[in-house]
Design goal:
The structure is a single chain. It is built from 14 helices and 13 strands. It is α/β, with parallel strands linked by helices. Helix 5 crosses helix 8. About 45% of the residues are buried. The protein binds NADPH dihydro-nicotinamide-adenine-dinucleotide phosphate. NADPH dihydro-nicotinamide-adenine-dinucleotide phosphate binds next to helix 5, helix 8 and helix 14.
Length: about 400
């Protein structure tokens, strides 16, 4: 019998929903790159339900208790007196979502003596110190592909809303005004603009595909070039380095994982190389940008706007400057946890747990760290400081 510790975000302020806005969600079985959506043997929830908050329990309680395991679910994750720290020393499996990350730094990993599996219900395992996980022989897995489209749709929405000045215009409507000039003094068309992505993995490529019909010029920077066919189909301009790309872009969207190579990639110096009036949309990870350099750039007008849904730390404190800086289109970290995305990543979490308990290998695509090294998707997309992995 194992103790499974699961950290989830709190229920809605008005309580766990009794009804939903829609009765069903489309059933997506295969992703764009041919990867199949999760295939657990069974699920104990109805797709479209709220599963990512504490009462939703990722739909796992019946399954895990049925196997005789102890299943602890909490949102109390910070500080030495938290529920999370209390259960940490004897948890064998920790499940957490990037939206409400149970940070597993070196100290916590040293304390988690029984930990064997750190499972990210979602995508992005940077809240786990991968070097320490490697050192302690902890397996790290995430549900690769499960919410890539959820995030790319959010990024496209943010690009359009920044460029067209949607949020301030909506505020005028709500306030009872009819201030057309106020709404449009910062409103442009995206058509004809240069839009570039940092990284063209699942999310980056999906954003490029979704922006293509807007008749923009598409650019990308990546460590590995896409195929000639993909470049031609989308009319992509490839850049060997980020600097060259940002110089020519009106909109830059960031879609790389957070690891030593991408940490503070967008600092003062990089932002200076961007065109005056450019926009940044970052739904990847906050620490890829230097927080205060972003604030200064929107305040000075060098950047015309910044939007995203990722913050450091999470939850962001009430006085985080990105909440109130000018021309921001921030949301809490929500893009990857739409009800549609949840249905897939909870099914993927179930699939990984079934594999784990039945002694079957976890899909390569889902593995980040295994056997004391970066493996699977982890070996492709991440680096740790000691050793640089660059195979593809
Ligand atoms: P993928 O693994 O499909 O793609 C990541 C890509 O990043 C890979 O193609 C990799 O390319 C590239 N990459 C890694 N390092 C660099 C670098 N230094 N420079 C340029 N490219 C780099 O992941 P996804 O697209 O699904 O997700 C990307 C990230 O988005 C996640 O790691 C996560 O942090 C974030 N995310 C955010 C969510 C949200 O709710 N806001 C939800 C889901 C994900 P290569 O190895 O070929 O260089």
């Amino acid at each position: 019998m194992a103790k499974i510790l699961c950290v989830l975000y709190p229920d809605p302020v008005n309580g766990y929903p009794k009804t939903y806005a829609r009765d069903e969600i489309p059933n997506i079985t295969v992703y764009d790159n041919g990867q199949t959506a999760p295939t657990p043997k069974a699920i104990d929830f109805k797709p479209g339900e709220l599963l990512g908050s504490v009462s939703g329990e990722l739909g796992l309680r019946k399954y895990l208790e049925g196997l005789g395991h102890e299943f602890i679910v909490t949102s109390d994750k910070e500080g030495p007196d938290s529920e999370f720290e209390k259960h940490l020393p004897d948890a064998e499996i920790i499940i957490s979502q990037p939206f409400w990350p149970a940070y597993l730094g070196p100290e916590r990993l040293a304390k988690a003596k029984k930990l064997k599996l750190a499972l990210t219900a979602g995508i992005g395992s940077d809240h786990v110190d991968l070097e320490s996980a490697i050192k302690h022989g902890v397996t790290v897995a995430e549900v690769t592909g499960s919410n890539s489209i959820s995030v790319s749709e959010h990024a496209v929405m943010m690009i359009l809303s920044l460029v067209r000045n949607y949020i301030p215009a909506h505020e005028w409507a709500e306030k009872g005004g009819w201030n057309i000039a106020d709404c449009v003094e910062r409103s442009y068309d995206v058509e004809g603009m240069h839009v570039g992505t940092v990284a063209a993995g699942r999310i980056g490529l999906a954003i490029l595909k979704r922006m293509k019909p807007f008749d923009v010029h598409l650019h990308y920077y990546a460590r590995h070039r896409l195929s000639k066919e993909e470049e031609e189909e989308l009319g992509l301009t490839f850049h060997e380095n980020v600097e060259d790309m940002v110089k020519v872009c009106d909109v830059v969207t960031i879609n790389a994982p957070l690891h030593p190579e991408t940490h503070h990639m967008f600092d003062e110096a990089m932002i200076k190389k961007m065109k005056r009036g450019a926009y940044i949309v970052n739904t990847a990870r906050a620490e890829i940008c230097d927080r205060d350099a972003i604030v200064r750039a929107v305040e000075s007008g060098h950047l015309a706007g910044y939007a995203g849904d990722v913050w450091n730390p999470q939850p962001a404190p009430a006085d985080h400057p990105w909440r109130t800086m000018p021309w921001n289109g921030m949301t809490p970290h929500m893009s990857g946890t739409s009800l549609s995305g949840q249905a897939r990543y909870t099914a993927g979490t179930r699939e990984i747990l079934e594999c784990w308990f039945e002694g079957r290998p976890i899909r390569e695509d889902y593995v980040i760290v295994d056997g004391g090294k970066l493996a699977g998707t982890g070996a492709l997309s991440y680096t740790v400081l000691e050793h640089h992995h660059h195979h593809h």
